[in-house]
Design brief:
Blueprint: E1 26-30, E2 77-78, H1 102-105, E3 131-134, H2 150-156, E4 165-168, E5 174-175, E6 183-187, E7 193-205, E8 212-219, E9 225-226, E10 230-231, H3 238-250, H4 253-256, H5 263-270, E11 274-280, E12 290-300, H6 303-307, E13 317-324, H7 327-331, H8 337-352, E14 355-356, E15 362-365
Bound molecules: 5-O-phosphono-beta-D-ribofuranose (RP5).
């Protein structure tokens, strides 16, 4: 079962703002709701305007302009019941304090079992004994990882996070802002605390089927469908990461010695992309002391732009293709990716006045 198909605000996941550390823990700086102001977050990759809440208002009543972004065609009418996402939907997984299911229940590749960790730090008492795990590759001190000695690592840099809650344990170790995971140490992640990624959601309307599609990969590690995100390199602009990851993972840049669309052109296109989400990712690699955070952006391509992309699988991807954005495909995606795509669809519907059906069909709203 996947968490995205089971989002239920009544399940025992922490309520927004309800995260209370156990007395032994030290709670540091509680930042503003967008998590971007203040010294703790200074220098984080990129500061565009993200939606502060994942709640999207009712679509404004406006006649859609179909000229560039949307293929001109007879658009079907999609009733409220047929919609992929209801007007005013809230993507609970993206709300502060929520979206911490896979990191509690799904072990990353080669990880030990997570057992049955408590739902929140306030419930993590003396009976909570997480298993230590750090992937063998971390012992080789790769450039992307912190030194194994946490005190040494944290002496060299300031901890950063998009999350407003910054928690620390008794020894100063960063604690997962969403709660326990059953594993301590860094797992396969290189950095103590937040590990920063960027996620490109690239969509088009399939000219033959009239369905909204996204560029999707199958990840090499867990063989789950994902958007082609990747880690932000030190000093890299997020638009650069987005373009680089697309070229590497979906255009086969390294394997084929070039791509049909140049990285610089893609990076320029991402400068106009819509900010969708920033914050915690419910990633199966997360541990109590290391976790993924990301910035997700949506770029909708015209049919002509999309036709210039020759999708060929590259590094970290077992497969790549245009995949329909449907209730079924979103429910199977890696980490929080299905939720990111839902949020992108909500924003896109609002911008264009169009609606998406449960099978991905693009249409006009009908009653
Ligand atoms: C996820 O891991 C992020 O959302 C991003 O898609 C991905 C980055 O990790 P790698 O693909 O580089 O392993 O949490």
């Amino acid at each position: 079962m996947n968490s995205i198909g089971n989002i239920n605000p009544l399940l025992g996941v922490q309520a927004p703002g309800g995260l209370r550390p156990a007395p032994a823990l030290k709670q540091e700086q509680s930042g503003p709701s967008d998590g971007l102001t203040g010294s703790v977050t200074a220098g984080l990759p990129g500061r565009p305007q993200f939606p502060t809440l994942a709640q999207i208002p009712e679509e404004p009543v406006k006649v859609p302009e179909l000229e560039t972004a949307v293929t001109p065609r007879e658009l079907p009418t999609i009733s409220d019941e047929q919609r992929l996402l209801q007007p005013g939907a809230v993507i609970w997984e993206l709300q502060p304090g929520w979206g911490h299911t896979k990191a509690r229940t799904q072990p990353g590749k080669d990880y030990p079992s997570r057992g049955n960790p408590p739902q929140s730090w306030s419930q993590a008492d003396e009976n909570y004994h997480p298993t230590f795990y750090e992937a063998p590759i971390l012992a080789t001190q790769p450039a992307w990882a912190d030194p194994a000695d946490m005190q040494e690592a944290l002496g060299k840099r300031e901890l950063q996070s998009y999350e407003s809650q910054q928690l620390k344990g008794p020894n100063g170790e960063p604690l997962n802002p969403r709660g326990p995971t059953g594993i301590h140490g860094r797992g396969l992640l290189g950095k103590f605390g937040a590990n920063f990624a960027a996620d490109p959601i690239v969509t088009r309307i399939n000219p033959e089927t009239g369905k909204l599609e996204m560029i999707a990969i199958v990840r090499e590690d867990l063989h789950q469908v994902a958007i082609p995100g990747g880690m932000v390199d030190p000093g890299e602009k997020v638009s650069g990461t987005l373009a680089r990851e697309l070229c590497e993972e979906t255009l086969g840049k390294e394997e084929h010695g070039g791509t049909t669309m140049q990285e610089a052109q893609l990076q320029q296109m991402f400068e106009r992309a819509t900010p969708v989400y920033q914050g915690y990712v419910d990633d199966p690699r997360n541990t109590d002391n290391a976790w993924m955070e990301t910035q997700a952006f949506h770029l909708h391509l015209t049919a002509e732009e999309a036709s210039q992309l020759d999708l060929r699988k590259g590094s970290d991807a077992a497969a790549v293709s245009w995949a329909p954005i449907s209730a079924e495909s979103l429910s199977e995606m890696y980490g929080s990716h299905g939720a990111f795509v839902k949020q992108a669809v909500l924003l896109w519907q609002q911008e264009t006045g169009l609606v998406i059906g449960q099978d991905g069909t693009v249409g006009r709203p009908g009653s």
